[in-house]
């Protein structure tokens, strides 16, 4: 029996894909300098190169999320997106520890609140793309 995805997870996946495409385009255009504030000062690569590279990756991930609906590719893509959010987390930490202002995060409190949202992005990527079990698995016969 094939599993069916819920409309909620379909909408969540499409929204995440759209958000990633938007963020990726922003990396390359209007918010390029803002994103550079998230590149840790200790990272040994030019901040602009990091921003451009991560923007390209975000556009690719977003486009893939908008176009990949079959399992197991869908859940694998969710794991890749979650891994990406984990990989960029040091940048969010650096913005907090180095007291860098960007995106209206101009206090340590605001930057700390932003840190709390990164695990939610990881969960969003995994939950929106997970493989749903058929109802027969959820309610086994007794």
Can you give the mean pLDDT?
91
Q: Kindly state the percentage of residues in helix.
A: 55-70%
Largest sheet: none
Say how many strands there are.
0
Task: Supply Rg.
Answer: 17 Å
Domains, number:
1
Low-confidence stretches: none
Q: Helix/strand-derived class?
A: mainly alpha
Give the N-terminus to C-terminus distance in angstroms: 19 Å
Cα shape: globular
Helix run count: 7
* SSE order: HHHHHHH
What does this structure look like?
The chain starts with 6 loop residues before the first helix and ends with a helix. It contains seven helices and no strands. It has helices spanning 7-28, 32-36, 47-67, 73-87, 89-97, 108-129, 135-138. With 142 residues, the chain is mainly α. The chain has one domain (7-131). The mean pLDDT is 91. The chain is globular, with a radius of gyration of 17 Å.
Keywords:
single chain, 142 residues, mainly alpha, 69% helix, globular
Chart the SSEs and their pairings.
Elements lengths: L6 H22 L3 H5 L10 H21 L5 H15 L1 H9 L10 H22 L5 H4 L4
In brief, what are we looking at here?
The chain is an all-alpha fold.
């Amino acid at each position: 029996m094939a599993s069916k995805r819920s409309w909620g997870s379909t909408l969540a996946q499409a929204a995440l894909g759209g958000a990633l495409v938007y963020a990726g385009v922003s990396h390359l255009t209007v918010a390029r300098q803002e994103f550079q504030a998230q590149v840790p000062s200790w990272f040994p690569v030019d901040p602009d190169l990091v921003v451009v590279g991560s923007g390209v990756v975000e556009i690719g991930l977003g486009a893939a999320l908008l176009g990949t609906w079959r399992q197991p590719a869908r859940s694998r893509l969710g794991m890749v997106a979650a891994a990406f959010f984990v990989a960029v987390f040091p940048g969010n930490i650096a913005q907090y520890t180095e007291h860098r202002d960007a995106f209206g995060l101009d206090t340590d409190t605001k930057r700390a609140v932003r840190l709390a949202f990164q695990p939610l992005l990881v969960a969003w990527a995994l939950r929106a793309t997970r493989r749903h079990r058929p109802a027969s698995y959820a309610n086994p016969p007794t």
